[in-house]
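Backbone-to-sequence.
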């Protein structure tokens, strides 16, 4: 069964065709990163205009590369939220128009649930109950998953998301945008020797990263950061502080909830230091999608759509975007 996925929640225009929720037939991502980099972050109005320009060619490429025609597609899955309203609207309206024109079922997908389903792509088969750590530009959520579509949120960030912290940290260090890959690259040349705080928030599964960002700013203001080895050490120390908190708190929650697996999801899950630290410290198996399935893509939306479709969860042609949608 082939599902077409469409994703336009933020700054990637993406479409993919997935077979049986696991096999990638095509996975096209048109990134706007170069356009937003000059502003140091995403400009929502620019993002939606760019989606308008690229969405149809991206959907056509996904169909062509998969070698399919509309008659081969069983349903269309599209991200309805959370995300930027103007960006979400582009994908949702294209999905609606095509579904209506081709008489195909339409499935609205929660972007965060989509991130989790990147773990079902390929040969990996997650088992329940599992604990999902969703770490992206807008979210740091710990979610207990007891079955397909069954989520209970245990914790979330109280201020900055992990990806947002990477982006703001990189800006403070003058490393450019997007910050996660930039900090990861710089950190490889440094040692995590600088003192930076960790917000443990004991007794809660919530996260907080804004104090860490402020501490980095104070460090940069107090020392001479024209020295590139100091920048590398600061990047390594900053990355290690985020990794420490994410891993320690996730493993605590995993122990308490007795899960059989931990699933990482979202752009920050592409961070190799995070994956390595998890694998070294966890007694529970940790699944991490390949980097291009951690960052925004439509393959994960199509994979998630497959499981919705299997359980009869199909939406009407009147679905709308929900920019503040949450999970669990
Ligand atoms: O999931 P995603 O692509 O988009 C959202 O749904 O937000 O996540 C984007 C975030 C950005 O903040 C980016 O800096 C971060 O993921 N990111 C990383 C890495 N690659 C992307 N953070 C740390 N290390 C990386 N390698
Ligand atoms: Zn995302």
């Amino acid at each position: 069964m082939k599902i077409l996925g469409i994703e336009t929640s933020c700054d990637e225009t993406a479409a993919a065709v997935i077979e049986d929720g696991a096999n990638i037939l095509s996975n096209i991502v048109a990134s706007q990163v170069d356009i937003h980099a000059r502003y140091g972050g995403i400009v929502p109005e620019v993002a939606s205009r760019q989606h308008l320009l690229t969405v149809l060619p991206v959907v056509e490429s996904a169909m062509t590369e998969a070698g399919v025609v509309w008659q081969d597609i069983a349903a269309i899955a599209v991200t309805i939220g959370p995300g930027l309203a103007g960006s979400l609207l582009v994908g949702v309206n294209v999905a609606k128009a095509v579904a209506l024109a081709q008489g195909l079922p339409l499935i609205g997908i929660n972007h965060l649930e989509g991130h989790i389903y990147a773990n079902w792509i390929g040969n990996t088969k997650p088992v329940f109950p599992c604990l999902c750590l969703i770490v992206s530009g807008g979210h740091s959520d710990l979610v207990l998953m007891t079955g397909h579509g069954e989520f209970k949120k245990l914790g979330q960030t109280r201020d900055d998301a992990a990806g947002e912290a990477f982006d703001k940290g990189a800006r403070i260090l003058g490393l450019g945008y997007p910050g996660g890959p930039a900090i990861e690259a710089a950190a490889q040349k440094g040692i995590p020797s600088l003192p930076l705080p960790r917000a443990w928030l004991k007794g809660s599964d919530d996260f907080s990263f804004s104090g860490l960002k402020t501490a980095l700013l104070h460090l940069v203001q107090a020392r001479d950061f024209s020295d590139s080895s100091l920048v590398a050490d600061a990047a390594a120390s900053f990355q290690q502080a985020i990794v420490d908190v994410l891993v320690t708190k996730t493993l605590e929650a995993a122990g308490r909830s007795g899960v059989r697996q931990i699933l990482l999801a979202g752009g920050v899950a592409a961070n190799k230091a995070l994956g390595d630290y998890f694998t070294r410290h966890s007694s529970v198996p940790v699944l991490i999608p390949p980097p291009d399935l951690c960052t925004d893509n439509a393959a994960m939306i199509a994979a998630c759509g497959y499981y919705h479709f299997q359980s009869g969860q199909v939406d009407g042609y009147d679905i709308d975007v929900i920019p503040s949608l949450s999970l669990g």
